[in-house]
Amino acid sequence: MKNRNGFSLIELIIVLAIMGVLMGFASVGINMLTSQSAKVVSRDVYNMIGSAQTVAMSKGNSYFMLSCDSTGNRRACVLYQRTESDGSTTWVILQEQELSNNCDINLVIGGNSYDLYQTTTGSHLQGVIIPIDRSTGRFQSVYFYSGDDTAPLGSAAADNCTDIIIQQGSRVYDIALVAATGKYYYK
């Protein structure tokens, strides 16, 4: 009778192959779980753009805003500029959605890409405001966010925002904004 201590080479290869397959499934599952916040942020931004267009068509003076405060918290808002009886204007936030900080948000304005959070390199934006035309729903030239919700319009950019890119890991969601028609869609 032979004494069989240990495993044969074939048994070890089979065990390693099974472990490799299980590791592959685990890495795909982990990637899907970690990229969920990019999907949620892109959906929230997409829906907020639609809400801003609806408000523009019904009330006028509607704006879509993406902003980032000094602590890195980001939000998407629908703004409405109301004219008071004395002729002054008041800014009202009609809808506001806090956005996850677990993903990157980049805006393409005039062919240049801007980050919507503080970084040590690259271009940083505190936020952008996109006016929406009441009669057509088209996107107009971008304003940079002033940092003050009571008077949010900062300096005007000469160009339109053409893309809002949300990325986390290998997952990328690109929302294209077509200024001429007011259409927006996922690329």
List the SSEs and their pairings:
Elements: H1 9-34, H2 36-58, E1 62-68, E2 74-83, E3 89-99, E4 104-109, E5 112-115, E6 127-132, E7 143-145, E8 153-156, E9 161-168, E10 171-177, E11 184-186
Antiparallel strand pairs: 1-2, 1-6, 2-3, 4-5, 4-9, 6-7, 7-8, 9-10, 10-11
Largest sheet: 6 strands, antiparallel
What is the 3D form? elongated
Number of helices: 2
- Average pLDDT: 83
Element-level helix/strand string: HHEEEEEEEEEEE
Strand order of the largest sheet: 3-2-1-6-7-8
CATH class categorisation: Alpha Beta
CATH architecture: 3-Layer(bab) Sandwich
Task: Please state the oligomeric state of the protein chains shown.
Answer: single chain
Helical content, roughly? 25-40%
Detailed description of the structure:
This protein has two helices and eleven strands. Strands 3-2-1-6-7-8 form a six-stranded antiparallel β-sheet, with helices on one face. A five-stranded antiparallel β-sheet has the order 5-4-9-10-11, with helices on one face. It is elongated and about 100 Å long. It is an alpha+beta fold. Helix content is 26%, strand content 37%. The protein has a single domain, classed as minor pseudopilin epsh fold (3-Layer(bab) Sandwich), CATH 3.55.40.
